[in-house]
Amino acid sequence: MRRYGKHTDEDDIRQRPNPKGNRPRTTIRPKHEDAAEGFVLTVDRGRLTCLVDGRTIHAMKARELGRKAAVVGDRVWIVGDLTGKKDTLARIVRIEERKSVLRRTADDDDPYERVVVANADQLAIVTALADPEPRPRMIDRCLVAAYDAGLEPLLVLTKSDLTSADKILEIYSTFGLNYVVTNREELAAGDAADRVRERLNGRITAFVGHSGVGKTTLVNSLVAEGRQRATGHVNAVTGRGRHTTTSALALPLPGGDGWVIDTPGVRSFGLHHVDPSRVILAFPDLVPGTEGCPRACSHDEQDCALDKWVEDGHADPARLYSLRRLLQTRERREGD
Predict the structure, then answer these.
(1) How far apart are CA 233 and CA 225, in angstroms?
(2) Which residues of the chain have pLDDT under 70?
(3) Which segments constitute the CP-type G domain (predicted)?
(4) Is 26 labelled as part of a ligand binding site?
(5) What angle do CA 296, 301, 302 make, to 5 degrees?
(6) Is 68 annotated as a binding residue?
(7) What is the pLDDT of residues 141-159, one digit of tens each?
(8) 290-327 burial by CB neighbour count: b if 16+ within 10 A, else e?
(9) Using CA atoms, how far apart are residues 39 and 52, in angstroms rounded to an integer?
(10) What pLDDT, on the 0 to 100 scale, is given for residue 267?
């Protein structure tokens, strides 16, 4: 048998036998026409809890989906055992196109995007007025993420029994941001929950906020009994909350008219994924002042018209300071 040379025939080609003795894997995939539609409630270490026809089932992602992962809020198609019985496991074979995606990064230098929730309509930014102290720049970051994802923001101020909400509202109510103020007595009586629920009906709302701001306590007051989650407390020394919610969870509002998604408390809300030119959209009180800016203004330069806009009293100086801090952080990242 000739092994070398330019002229070869089929006898010179050595074919290795298939060690498994089966046919090559086909690229044709099943259509799964019998798949049932489901809604992802939570994800825990690769196992997804989904709602299918009123039943709660457990499923895992099918291999054919590759690296595409399902997250809380996704509409998915599922095959397999859909009875919801103990020790049964179905497969998610398709993920519907998302109408919105809320993302964040660990910080502005981290390129890894984390999808918080999918298909939400509204972002409830929960902030305590005291214990822990409010952080307006955290609110601004959440507003940037909300506008970038196409979500309507809702500011929820908790613990108004400890201090007045006037200072925060003076900043954020001037440009039409929807807000609700609550306190612990009203939550216990149910009055505050009713006011918040009015803003949530018919929508999928994701709740975000620092640990210890009362986010999960608020969510527990909104949902039916038996669905409440564990809550924590604020450390008296550090002034920070303790993480008790470790994964996002979608919970239905009583009456089936809307969903709330409780997310784990965060220490930071990175915006690495947001285009710097879109950051200004989270500052509606400053946008009119940009009309006098030079072309391609970075809003952090000597000729920026926003300085005059704030000087004339059209916006709070703290808002311009917050905008420029965000932009400077992005510039440092891009210069690395």
Answers:
(1) 21
(2) 1-28, 226-245, 330-336
(3) 99-269
(4) no
(5) 120
(6) no
(7) 999 999 999 999 999 999 9
(8) eeebeeeeebbeeebbbeebbeeeebbeebbebbbebb
(9) 7
(10) 78
210 is in an annotated binding site: yes
- 299 is an annotated ligand-binding site residue: yes
Domains of the chain, residue spans: 36-95, 101-262, 276-335
- Shortest CA distance to 279 belongs to which of 146, 174, 177? 146
| Amino acid (one-letter) located at 49 | T
User: Is 223 labeled as ligand-binding?
Assistant: no
C-alpha span between 253 and 207 (Å, rounded):
14
Closest CA to 197 of 252, 276, 142: 252
Consult the annotation and say whether 159 binds a ligand.
yes
Rounded CA separation 222/193 (Å): 6
Token readout for 149 is 């994802």
Provide the residue count of the chain. Answer: 336
Identity of the amino acid at 58: H
Assigned CATH for 101-262: 3.40.50.300
Ligand-binding site membership of 142 (annotated): no
Tokens 């620092």, residue?
A: 210
The CATH number corresponding to 276-335 among 2.60.120, 1.10.40, 3.90.25, 2.10.260 equals: 1.10.40
Termini Cα distance of the chain: 61
Question: Between the CA atoms of 212, 213, 215 and 221, what dihedral angle is there, to the nearest 10 degrees?
Answer: 100
Contact by Cβ (8 Å): 196, 173: no
Strands 122-128 and 152-158: parallel
Residue 14 to residue 3: CA distance in whole angstroms: 10
- Say whether 160 counts as a known binding-site residue: yes
Q: How far apart are CA 188 and CA 220, in angstroms?
A: 11
Amino acid 114 reads: R
pTM for the structure as a whole: 0.81
DSSP SS3 for 314: coil
CATH number belonging to the domain at 36-95, selected among 3.40.50.300, 3.40.190.10, 2.40.50.140, 2.102.10.10? 2.40.50.140
